[in-house]
Write a structure and sequence with these properties.
Blueprint (H helix, E strand, L loop, with lengths): L1 H27 L4 H19 L5 H21 L6 E3 L4 E3 L1 H20 L1 H7 L3 H19 L4 H19 L6 H32 L4 H14 L1
Antiparallel strand pairs: 1-2
Length: about 220
């Protein structure tokens, strides 16, 4: 009986969380439209790779490049929009972070055609490489608009983990394996120090967003 009640409570809590996430995505999804295009491209690459027997490399290059170009176009069309803070203060959109998002998208767009010869020489899987590049791009774009301590931590982790995987992409190369191990150890140590600092900031401010931190520190400074 107790297990049945706990199971019902778990289902209800999961439903509430899902509905809240769906509500945020429905009403705030337009604010991250360039990022949503990259997510759609990632899902499309995964679906084609899972369902297709023949790995048509030009088709994979076309999907990834097209998603990046469309994302750049959507970002440029939103240049004249007013600054917006969405997702309960976790993400902000303004012209300043759009500049860095454009640079990240441009570098990723140039990276794909420049890597064609390298992938053919290494004879490695093309799908994984493109997935890592797009996911790293997505993490960098979310980092540009991060307005919360949790978002500021999760976005670089998404970016850095894909960088670890890209550095160890050629598994048969000993130098690649060594670079991945060093990169992983240094990145893990850096992330732990970053989380420790964020915990102090969160505890001293009472909130995760930068606005609440600034207000709290300003209030303490005026009292002193």
């Amino acid at each position: 009986m107790i297990w049945h009640v706990q199971n019902e409570n778990f289902i209800l809590d999961s439903t509430r969380i899902f509905m809240k996430a769906f509500h945020l995505l429905l009403f705030h999804g337009s604010f991250i439209f360039p990022e949503c295009i990259l997510i759609f491209g990632l899902i499309l690459l995964l679906m084609i790779d899972l369902t297709s027997d023949k790995k048509d490399r030009p088709w994979f290059y076309f999907i990834s490049s097209t998603s990046l170009v469309i994302s750049i176009t959507a970002l440029l069309f939103r240049w004249r929009e007013e600054p917006i803070i969405s997702f309960s203060g976790n993400f902000q959109t303004n012209n300043f972070n759009k500049i860095f998002q454009f640079l990240i998208l441009l570098c990723s767009t140039l990276c794909i055609p420049l890597s064609v010869e390298y992938i053919e020489c290494t004879e490695m899987a093309i799908t994984e490489f493109l997935l890592f590049v797009l996911t790293a791009t997505l993490g960098g774009m979310f980092l540009c608009g991060a307005n919360d301590l949790i978002t500021i931590f999760v976005a670089p982790e998404c970016f850095s983990l894909c960088s670890y995987l890209l550095s160890g992409y050629t598994k048969r190369d000993l130098r690649s394996n060594e670079a991945t191990m060093k990169y992983l150890l240094m990145g893990g140590a850096s992330s732990s120090i970053l989380v420790h600092g964020f915990s102090w900031l969160y505890g001293s401010s009472g909130g995760g967003d930068r606005a609440s931190r600034n207000c709290e520190w300003s209030y303490q400074y005026t009292n002193v």
